[in-house]
Design brief:
Elements: E1 19-20, E2 27-28, H1 31-40, H2 43-53, H3 56-75, H4 77-80, H5 115-131, H6 154-168, H7 176-191, H8 195-212, H9 216-232, H10 236-254, H11 259-274, H12 278-295, H13 301-315, H14 322-343, H15 348-387
Antiparallel strand pairs: 1-2
Helix pairs in contact: 2-3, 3-6, 5-6, 6-7, 7-8, 8-9, 9-10, 10-11, 11-12, 11-13, 12-13, 13-14, 13-15, 14-15
């Protein structure tokens, strides 16, 4: 599913082109690359270990997971020094010897864990809910901290995403667990700024959904995620087009007050702002912000994101007036402490709001100083005219 290129020449194969090794399913664009890989690329030694691991996809996922865990533990090493895992109570994992991570909104001595422990906890909770046929399948444990209830972010989200995918990819393609797992992986790659890799995952996921005849709701969610990747890679027109479809589809399907519609509106507005179509962004945001504040509340992530987008559409506009800049600063000053309190200062949105506020305040001070100088000059000119 994730291996969409020839193992030798990296030619794009999509989901079905080329051929596979008959034993381990490693993919090639043709027999020439397969022979070359066997003779010169070391595949004669790797083929059996790959097969024993469960095939090329599983072997690839296992390796990527191990790499991601090492990166996450290294990145968190300073923050986790002297702490223990809240799940197994050990500093060093007893089996994998991996270090601790913390990639959520927990504070103080809370939230430290091994990625392996987080993965095992999620596996147990999901399996238990599945066995008992519970409506709450605990799937959110693959992307949400069980202590602070906030999403994992950064390299920790990436490591947990690989854990989720390697755990589920052995299931049939149509299995709901496997289909959710690829989405968790895509999100994790994006949060670690692995945008090209995430794009490949998103495109494979959407192609699979179309082929399996998935629901409109699930397709809209995947299109939303794909648009995010287009945007992150600078493909802004493609992102805008896809987000327009998603917003229209959510509005028609769920109504203006649904959380999914409001999230789609926020993403759609972001695309307008990215393309410097500020007035269109503000028109959409002025329509949706009051709905989000009424339906979701002031503390909700989507409400905060909408209002941050609105402030950005004001202060980034070259045609913005002094009053526009004052409104942007007032908006950011209002939501910044809320974002820090609810999400934690390490959360990407909270950090973004703080940065936007600092930059907007600087721009406002410069604009106000410019206005003051202009006013003084005008007054001096008027005095000179009266004297003559």
């Amino acid at each position: 599913m994730i291996l969409t290129q020839c193992a030798v020449c990296a030619a794009e194969l999509g989901l079905s082109l080329g051929k596979k090794c008959g034993r381990c399913s490693t993919r090639y664009c043709g027999p020439e690359c397969q022979v070359q890989h066997w003779k010169e690329g070391g595949h004669d030694k790797l083929c059996k270990p790959i097969k024993n691991a469960g095939g090329a996809e599983q072997y690839h996922a296992n390796n990527k997971y191990a790499e991601a865990v090492a990166v996450a533990a290294t990145a968190c090493a300073e923050d986790t020094k002297g702490q223990t895992c809240y799940i197994c109570t050990q500093a060093l994992h007893w089996k994998t010897k991996e270090g601790l991570v913390r990639g959520c909104s927990c504070r103080g001595t809370a939230g430290f864990a091994h990625v392996s422990c987080l993965a095992e906890q999620a596996k147990i909770l999901v399996a238990d809910a599945e066995e008992r046929n519970l409506d709450d399948n605990k799937w959110h444990r693959w992307h949400t901290c069980s202590l602070c209830e906030q999403n994992y972010h950064g390299v920790v989200a990436c490591a947990v995403g690989w854990a989720c995918w390697k755990t589920s990819l052995g299931r049939p393609e149509a299995d709901w667990t496997r289909r959710l797992a690829i989405g968790v992986l895509g999100n994790g790659l994006n949060k670690a700024k692995r945008h090209e890799a995430a794009l490949s995952v998103r495109e494979a996921e959407l192609a699979m959904m179309w082929r399996l005849g998935d629901s409109e709701e699930h397709i809209l969610i995947t299109q939303t995620n794909l648009a995010i990747n287009y945007d992150l890679l600078g493909r802004r027109e493609e992102a805008l087009s896809l987000r327009r479809k998603v917003y229209t589809g959510c509005l028609k399907r769920s109504g203006e007050g649904h959380e999914r519609t409001l999230r789609a509106a926020s993403n759609y507005a972001s695309s307008f702002t990215g393309l410097k179509r500020f007035e269109e962004a503000r028109t959409l945001l002025r329509k949706t912000m009051p709905v989000a504040r009424r339906v979701l509340g002031e503390n909700n992530f989507i409400t905060l994101h909408l209002r941050c987008n609105y402030a950005q559409s004001l202060c980034c506009d070259a045609a913005a007036t002094l009053d526009d800049h004052r409104e942007a600063v007032a908006t950011l000053e209002e939501i910044e402490p809320t974002a820090r309190r609810v999400l934690g200062s390490a959360n990407p949105l909270a950090a973004q709001i703080e940065r936007e506020l600092q930059q907007s305040q600087e721009v406002l001070r410069a604009r106000e100083a410019s206005v003051d100088v202009t006013a003084v000059c005008a007054a001096l000119d008027a005095m000179a005219v009266r004297k003559t």
